[in-house]
Amino acid sequence: MNHSKHLCASLLIALLTGGVTVAHAGDLCRNVRFQITNQKNHAITITQVKYFNQTNNRLQTEAIRNIQCAAGATCVTKGDNLRDSEGQDLTRFIFILKNEGGENRHETGVKGTGNPRCTADKTYGPFVITAND
């Protein structure tokens, strides 16, 4: 019993003096998906998403697991973690994509959402990728 009291006291002192670093996983918004309708006349591959984090007041870019979306199809990304975003309002989405058979990546126009709060397992969208994107 005396040993456990000593251990607790040592831990308390270390915490109070900053001698112990507490691991912090950050505020990842986990397993976020994006529903996208491809209105182009060819397949696209979505590689990244940019979004405006209103709390941080900055545009953030995240790689997402590449998903190919056929012409005319509605696709949902596989689910990725967005850093510094749990419980935050995310707006102004821009998708970085490649056209079928193309190596050049380009950005879509800005896409909005009516429900910006990021929570675990959320699906944003539907977003429409038009011929002009």
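Next protein, fold it too.
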Amino acid sequence: MARILVFALVIIASLPLQAQEFSLSLGVYTGVAGSFTSDKGIENDPRYEGRFETKVVPIGLNLGIDFEGFGLMVSPGVVNVGQNFYVVNTQRGQDGLREIDLRYLSVPVSFKVNLVRFYAFKLSAVASIAPSFLMDGREELSHGPTKLIFPSEVYPMLPSTYSVEYDGVLAPEVDHYSISQKKDFRPVQLFAGAGFRTEWDPSNHWRIAVDLRLNYGVFDPRSGPYKEKLESTVGLYETATDRRDIFAQFTVGISRYIEFDNSDKERSRKIRGSSKRFKPTQYPGQRVRVGKPKE
């Protein structure tokens, strides 16, 4: 976390602070996120059905600098992505769950442009890029005794406990079948985001922010070697297709901010004046009085 804050300070220090007015803020945020996994293999597989659910966004930090009309933020925090899918039988009943759970330490760098500003209220459009470092990752499947529609190419590799019938495959109970582990995912992901942010200053030093943003994973979250292994072999419950993680994030934060005005600094510098001794201007022919005037 210390390295992240140093990185944020370097970014802010590189900004053109010669702007007439700006403010610095530091605060915390939290919220909820809804994740969607785009994977044609899962979407076209009759054994699975999408399930929507929200995940908590743990408390993160927000460091920002605001100028007149635009601003920059660095917001390190933990994000949980990955969608869960129901395991459905031949009658479309729900008999289990396929869980995809990825946890990242994400460092979004965001640029915002003010759309509306009214007294202490601002509405801004936000764009961000977020390098994200994998903390934990897993993909597991569990279901009870059921009948599923397996692809025909899987039949030769079915275990002896699976029984092929005319309308499907009788499968025994499966508990936490591991499809992929942390080592099977990319260690670094990149999320591109866009959305809107509102900020309200209830006092001269406190700021409340509400942020709604949609984030898209630039890379397939699974590693190259793992995908090559899927393409060379037939998996019992998995398929080798491209995948992307998308999540919408709604957060609420509070920050302490300080405003700066460079014109005030210039004014105070002029008031203080020079440290040199004052010398009156002399003109040609002018005699300078050196003694006391006669009474």
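About the second fold: The CA atoms of residues 274 and 295 lie 36 Å apart.
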